[in-house]
Amino acid sequence: MRGNFKIFCLSGLLIIFSSNTAGQTCRGRCGDVLEKCSCHATCMSLMSCCADYNQSCFQVMPHSSSMLGGKALRILGLDLHPHGQLLCRFKGEILRDGFVDAEGRAYCISPLLYETGWIPFDVSTDGIKFDRSAQYFSVHPSKADPAYKVTLVNATQWQYYGTPNVAGRLEFTWNSFLISAEKVNIELWGYREFKAKEETNASAFLEAELRYLYSLGRNLTNTGAFSFIPEPKEDYSDWELGNIRITASSNLEGARDVQGLWSGGHVLAWHLEQAFRENSEAWAHNKCLKWDVLEENLPNFLNELIDCPCTLAQARADTGRFHTDYSCDIERGSVCTYHPGCVHCVRAIHASPIHGSGQQCCYDSTGALVLTGDSVGGSTPDRAHDWGSPPYVKPPRVPGYSHWLYDVMSFYYCCLWSPHCHIYLKHRPSSGCQNYRPPRAGVVLGDPHFITFDGLRYTFNGKGEYYLVSSPEKGLSVQARTEQVKRKNGVYVFSPSPGNVTVIFSSGVGVEVCLYEGTMAVTVLLPEEFYNHTQGLLGSMNSDPSDDLTIQLGEVISSADATLEEIFTFGASWNISKNSSLFTYDSEHLLDMYNIPPSHDPTFVPAFSLPESLDDPLVAEMLTMCYGEGAQFCKYDTLTTRDLTVGNATLKAYQKHQALLHALKPVVSCGWLPTPRNGRKNGTDYLQGSTLSFACNKGYIMYGSAERTCLGDGTWTGDQPSCITDDKLGFVLGAVGSILALVTVGIIISLHNRKQKRERKDKPIQMVNQQQTC
Q: Are residues 400 and 535 located together in one domain of the fold?
């Protein structure tokens, strides 16, 4: 027997099945399951669709578009008369004309939006009733399909155009086949954020605008390439950020939401005023100083950011909270324009709750976190998260563009176009990692074997649907479905397409599904907020593996001496209930095998152990392959499936999990130490066991500790060093000596006066006594 998993996991709070059955129609109800019929996409395979499903709900191809818009979305299943009427309404308010091609296929053009995520839209064929609906996915411009982008050739020239020794022709290219026209217009669009109303709380009334500025060329041949020598545009110099758009020349210049191709957002150095070209450094320095004043008056966002992972290994492993920064990716050659000296950066996936800010963490080739206190290429947090934050639309939460205005343009002013990066880094200092706590990982792999959050290992071969993790207090439910696979001559063969899938939750939970040679491994990452708040097949996350075999009713089976049968009883107890299932049953097989019968199949009894017969020709090869840690899982899966490939896949999954645990091992950071003024610091490693040494420049003397070591309790040995000149040291020592001399003289005088007082006080007493004794 071999168990494979089909995983569907999300917060149970997000699953809502409507019970409103009025009219039993799918109009406005696409995706819902009604009382007597269904408007869910699975109704087609289950033959349970409402009568008007095909007329009310449709799919689109492609299913995504850049949020800049301009992509033709074909409406599947809707065939109209060529050149017939079609209106498209996005988000219930943005009304645009669609079109029907010569073959009767209907299209809507995705609109320019200031948000990412699923965008609902509906269509009308009579201009009155919008009775068909669907949705598409609006993506960050940097994540859009590269084939649909205008590519700026020699990006460095575009970034520095107008600075000393940077001039000449600028060039860009595009896929000419994606614009079905012989002639095109080439336009420049500019982005800004401005006050829509004069109010005391200005940030609450900022508006975003991407607007047509002017055309670089009209009615040009659609060759897929264009070059030009830019001229300063005094009237448009205030527009410092923007995009190039290419559309068919049949469209009016600057027309919104027409089919076209966009470049990525970029700084418009090439069209800035003549003053920039005459003295770009002075121009940029002036802008940097104005930004400095602006930042001083904005609220502090640094305190609400999460700390960075301490090492590159942690940063790449913590997939529930951090994701690769595409501008500095070790998998793509580590082209880190804004973080020189680094090989990889990650961003916190979710923006901070109040200001919508973002954390960025960058690492060098040794895997160490790079800090701005040591390098201008260090990690820099962002006032506006690059990926935006809900509810989007309004600054500073517009994906990509708000980040450019708040965090990137100022980097050009202060660091790239002028040598005043200290001003920028004053407002964007690195966060350190002293408060970072790595997540805990649990995994299910192979046929299937479990390693809990606390490290307990066991095998459970039940057939059904079960809770991997249940945390009602945190609103998290991760469920798994196991299915017996009959190989070769059997009915079902699990043969998924290669690839990995990661599901990320706002709570910092990550669920990663990896495929290995026809088998599946599911890893769940939980942040420390879930400590003492989990149960299920991956155990109770509390650093105590002895209680990980707790059945759903609360009884604890001792893991130290649990039998295979007792473990099976424990696993079976975590079957899901029908009303808590997160699964979709979109075939007769799933209905018959999982939805109708109990969620745990009591008639299925697995082989609890398999003898290794020396007569078995498979055993010799198995023993050669299955050795070291994880060998018991490798052997079991090889023998149960009679397939060395499966056993090897299980071993690989096990080894990857062990590597993950090693990467997530907690480390201690003592925090950043500054370089003494007029001195030097040797070393930038601030983790436990590291030693930093300090020295002073010529003419200066060390005062404090020349070496400091990071201890296991998070503190540094010694005292903070400082470097002072010989003259200052002599003056200080002389001053200290004078003060000591004065203090000494004062003490002597005080003692002398006290002695005299005692003598004057004692003398009359002695005289009286003498008179009495005579």
A: no
Q: Are 112 and 257 in contact (CB under 8 A)?
A: yes
Task: Walk across the sheet containing 60-61 and list its strands.
Answer: 60-61, 72-79, 105-109, 99-100
Identify the CATH number of the domain in which residue 686 sits: 2.10.70.10
Beta bridge partners of 511: 503, 524
Shared domain check, 113 and 76: yes
Whether residue 330 sits in one domain with residue 233: no
* Residue 68, domain extent: 14-142
Sorting pLDDT into bands at 50, 70 and 90, what band is 710? very high
Predicted confidence at residue 490, as pLDDT, reads 29
Would you say residue 505 lies in a domain?
yes
Same domain, 274 and 284: no
SS3 591: helix
Burial class (CB in 10 A: 0-12, 13-18, 19+), 300: exposed
Q: Which among 590, 607, 624 is the end of a domain? A: 607
Total domain count for the chain? 5
Confidence of residue 16 (pLDDT cuts 50, 70, 90): very low
pLDDT grade for 198, boundaries at 50, 70 and 90: low
Residues 460 and 576 in one domain: yes
- Six token digits for residue 113: 């939006």
Do 528 and 437 contact (CB within 8 A), yes or no? yes
Q: What does the pLDDT read at residue 484?
A: 73
Q: How many CB atoms lie within 10 A of CB 146?
A: 10
**CB burial class (10 A; 0-12, 13-18, 19+) of residue 314?**
buried
- What sections of 95-233 are H helices per DSSP? 155-160
- For the CA atoms of the chain, what is the radius of gyration? 35
701-706 LR contacts (CB < 8 Å, sep 24+): 701/725, 701/726, 701/729, 703/729, 704/676
Please say which residue of 252, 278, 304 terminates a domain.
278
Residue 220 has a pLDDT of 98
Helix axes 617-625, 644-663, angle to 10 degrees: 20
**Length of the chain measured in residues:** 774
Q: How far apart are CA 301 and CA 358, in angstroms?
A: 9
What does the H/E/C string look like for 636-678? Answer: HHHHHHCCHHHHHHHHHHHHHHHHHHHHCCCCCECCCCCCCCC
Mean pLDDT of the 329-353 span: 93
Compute the average pLDDT of residues 54-71: 94
| pLDDT band at residue 500 under the 50/70/90 scheme | confident
Residues 6+ away with beta carbon under 8 Å from 296: none
**Amino acid letter for position 441:** A
Identify the burial level of 418 via C-beta atoms within 10 angstroms of its C-beta, where 0-12 means exposed, 13-18 middle and 19 or more buried.
buried
